[in-house]
Amino acid sequence: MVRLSFKDFKRHINDIKALMNLQDRIDNFKHEYNKSGVKDEFEFYFPTGIDNIIQLLALLTNDKDEWISYWVYELNFGKRADELKCTDKDGNKIPMNTIEDLWAVLHSEG
What we know:
The structure is a single chain. This protein is mostly helical. The chain has 4 helices and 2 strands, in the order αααββα. Strand 1 and strand 2 form a beta hairpin. Helix 1 packs antiparallel against helix 2 (50-61). The longest helix has 29 residues, at 6-34. The two termini are 20 Å apart.
């Protein structure tokens, strides 16, 4: 089985974050331009491969429960972890604030 180091995992997660931030900045610019009263409006999206990267990371980390996707999209890279608490089967809080927390969940025995 292919092994993925934490260093590589973190690099790929940070790449996803950078791509999402870039698209957000483009969307903000588009919104400002479109409300400026200029007659022509525009939309701009480019293929980022974010979902493909998440799928590959999930495959490499054996993430059958889709923790990576949840952490990226629902928890907004851990920023909403205190608001959307994760718990184990016994009701204990699972820390999900950082990439290190996500890595620990992916490598836990439970």
